Amino acid sequence: MKLIDTHTHLFSDKFAEDRHAAIQRAIDAGIERMYLPNICSDTTEAMNAAVAAFPEHCFAMIGLHPCHVDENYATELAHVRNELATGKYIAIGETGLDYHWDLTFKDQQHDALRQQIALAKEYKLPIVLHTRESFDDTYELIAEQNDDTLSGVFHCFSGTADEANKVAKLGGFYIGIGGVATFKKSNHAEVLPDVPINMIVLETDSPYLAPTPYRGKRNESAYLTHIAERVAEIKGVSLEELAQRTTENALKLYQSK
Ligand code: NI
């Protein structure tokens, strides 16, 4: 069985003591590829070092996380542009909008997302979207700019059936399902049965949102197997089929590299 963790922050300080061991544990568990969404210019170096150590297994994205958009976001976006020019990134991410923590820079978040959508189109790379309490506005910006070249993923999706339908209608967009699907109170058991399996990719979002039975602990890519098991159960397919289909989906989405 092969799986792809499409969203894992393995460069986080939380892995300072055992980063390479954590990546090796994931590889040993069948997580063949790990896609690393960047946060901001402070994390680029650690991310690229992890990728350099495991070039067959780890792949980097470049982008500016909405929680790191502030008055200096123009400088951060210049960093994204400079890095993109190196040609070594598989996606723009992570970007999006976050209305949960702080609304001080809401307008700047919108502008930063618009600029990153334009970069995704220019470089023909998928875009990785964070939509915490902001699905409608993120969706609207994507729908407004959508064309045949734009593709991507609504990461950490825990929305309604209506929202999943809206993502499906965009064409070329996927939903990323993570540890929340294993929580008793999540709505995935109601929503996912009607979502076509060909729009699902798996993710841990490590070090955050560890699946049951590790809930509350540090998350790592090796735990993706627990998420895959739960999604297979909800979808009523074998773990092998779920692994194969979601791996195909991830490879298709990130095929430009
Ligand atoms: Ni993330």
Low-confidence stretches: none
Strand content: 5-15%
CATH topology: TIM Barrel
Unique bound compounds: nickel (II) ion
Task: Compute the number of helices.
Answer: 9
Biggest sheet, open or closed, and with what strands and sense? Answer: 5 strands, parallel
Helix content: 25-40%
Number of individual domains: 1
CATH level-1 class: Alpha Beta
Question: What is Rg?
Answer: 17 Å
Mean pLDDT: 97
CATH superfamily: Metal-dependent hydrolases
Provide a quick synopsis of the model.
This protein has helices at 19-28, 44-53, 73-84, 106-123, 135-145, 161-170, 188-191, 224-235, 239-253; strands at residues 3-5, 31-36, 58-60, 92-98, 127-132, 152-154, 173-177, 200-202. The chain has 257 residues and is α/β, with parallel strands linked by helices. A five-stranded parallel sheet has the order 4-5-6-7-8. Strands 1-2-3 form a three-stranded parallel sheet, with helices on both faces.
How would you describe the overall organization of this protein?
The radius of gyration is 17 Å and the shape is globular. The protein is α/β, with parallel strands linked by helices and 257 residues long. It is built from nine helices and eight strands. The protein has one domain: TIM Barrel, CATH 3.20.20. The protein has helices spanning 19-28, 44-53, 73-84, 106-123, 135-145, 161-170, 188-191, 224-235, 239-253; strands at residues 3-5, 31-36, 58-60, 92-98, 127-132, 152-154, 173-177, 200-202. The chain binds nickel (II) ion.
